[in-house]
Amino acid sequence: MKLNAIFATFFVLFIGGLFILEFSSHIFSETNLVSAIDSYNSPAVYKDYREAKPIVFLSDIKINETDSINNTVLDVVYSDLVWSDEFDLNGAVNAEKWFHQTQIPSGGSWFNDEEQHYTDRLENSYVKDGFLCISAIKELYTNQDITKTYTSARLNSKFAFTYGRVDVRAKLPFGAGTWPAIWTLGKNINEDGGYWDNEFGTVGWPACGEIDIMEHGLGALNHVSSALHSPCNQCFGDTVNLKAYELNDVANEFHVYSMNWSPNQITFLIDDEIFYTYKPEIKDSGTWPYFEDQYLLLNIAMGGAAGPIDLDFTQSSMVIDYVRVYQNTK
Question: Could you give the CA distance from residue 11 to residue 207 in angstroms, rounded to a whole number?
Answer without folding.
Answer: 32
